[in-house]
Amino acid sequence: MSQTLADLQDRTFAKATPATDSTYPPERRLTAGQLAAYLDRRTYAVVGTARPDGRPHAAMSMYVRRGTTFWLPTVSGSVRARNLREQPWLTLVVAEADGDAHIVVILEGPTETLPLEDAPEDVRAVVEGDWPRAWIRLRAERLLSYAAEDAKP
């Protein structure tokens, strides 16, 4: 049976510190249906990687979600792809709005950078043009979500 986003979120919070648990209280977390709908209506996220010297690197990236796996197209020689060769772990942050209407989903997990042909055909079909030179596959192992009081996930 494949893991769902809600299962992943439940497992993440089961291991969370008291600080994380109080920052993302249960009543503000996205439900199973909200998680899938929110992540599927979004196209871009901020992704974080670590440079070989330990400094952080953040960049915008398109993503395509399939279950708890996220596919990110990349160009040849990108800093992100180089960073992932050294430290194959990625943080993906999908956020919108501000104040009492903001929503955020944070995902983390191990990655692989794969040749174009190794991404599923339906994933490749989402990207217009022939600019991607490889795909980064993120297999999410952690998921945190928060929807402020007036948010509309």
UniProtKB/TrEMBL annotation:
Ranges for domain Pyridoxamine 5'-phosphate oxidase N-terminal: 34-142
Entries under InterPro entries matching the protein: F420H2_bilvrd_red/Heme_oxyg (IPR052019), Pyridox_Oxase_N (IPR011576), Split_barrel_FMN-bd (IPR012349)
Organism: Streptodolium elevatio
Keywords on record: Oxidoreductase
Protein's UniProt name: Pyridoxamine 5'-phosphate oxidase family protein
A Pfam family the protein falls into: PNPOx_N
Residues covered by region (Disordered): 1-26
